[in-house]
């Protein structure tokens, strides 16, 4: 059998399960940066714990179908309704979900989006499916696990879906539980703390607890037991903290060490290189025009896109005669590429590293 690197967090899973079944907290929103293990926790720890507690967890990622998240919702609710009462189905659904995630690998998280508006029929179907699911399982509690919820504020096309979800969840009230996760702090804040937004005040927000020493010790133990490799736990911890507790990169380190049997120092260097390659943002920037790059820099610095200094910057980047409509359309396409999110009157940059990278590249 393949060895599992996954470090289980039964205590955290149990706590959240208790909160969700106590009747005190029906909606929890966990936020934390990307790649710290939120999704894996939902799928591998929380789901089994919820099942044990007589709940029906339904995992739905807003990133599964980025252009039409409502379709994924319909799909998952239909599957859940079919599954209810059948044994063993849940396990296979989870395996499929994890395989899908692994296959995505380092995905282009900032691709171009062609968002679709959910039709009235689709929205009615979602409402009916939710009611049907909840009422069909009298003695069990349905818990929706909605991953990457902030995706719903990245396009105005998703607004009707947001309103509809808010309404139906209010209607079902305590007969359903929801765990949201989000990987954009600003996005989540905008979504739940802005009174013009449909999800305003609809969940208790919690910071997702990062993995820590015990996870590092677990990985070190795996390297020892399966590969007879000995590394200093202290040094591994130092490295884990230096990469902001990213389980994603730390797992890559463990794989690298297992495969190459090198010193820890060489392993860390290799991972640092991989991380650097990824944060060079070359491929992201390649698809941006120079004016788009300039506008991104101005927005990221919280400065005007139209004043003299802005025009100066665009010219430095090589735009001959930057004009207002060019700047406007550059802004729009940054939004559609999801590098920028606009919520009410506030503009959010999803990855500030990109603007820094542009500045370095052009020496501006
Ligand atoms: N508990 C864990 N034990 C071992 N590795 C983990 C754990 N959680 C996450 N990982 C590793 O980190 C990667 C990213 O985790 P993921 O859950 O997708 O992060 P997030 O959802 O926060 O972006 C996983 O593919 C896995 O390699
Ligand atoms: Mg995730």
Structure description:
By secondary structure, the chain is an alpha/beta fold. It has three domains: 10-207, P-loop containing nucleotide triphosphate hydrolases (Rossmann fold); 213-278; 282-362, Arc Repressor Mutant, subunit A. It is 55% helix and 10% strand. The protein has 16 helices and seven strands. It has helices spanning 10-21, 38-52, 69-83, 89-104, 120-135, 159-172, 185-193, 213-227, 233-242, 247-260, 264-278, 282-286, 290-300, 308-316, 324-336, 352-362, and strands at 27-31, 55-61, 141-147, 176-182, 204-207, 340-343, 346-349. It has a five-stranded parallel beta sheet, sandwiched between helices. A two-stranded antiparallel sheet has the order 6-7. β3 (141-147), α6 (159-172) and β4 form a beta-alpha-beta unit. It binds adenosine-5'-diphosphate (ADP) and magnesium ion. Magnesium ion binds at residues 38-39, 147. Residues 38-39, 147 line the site of magnesium ion.
Please sum up the structure shown.
The protein has 16 helices and 7 strands.
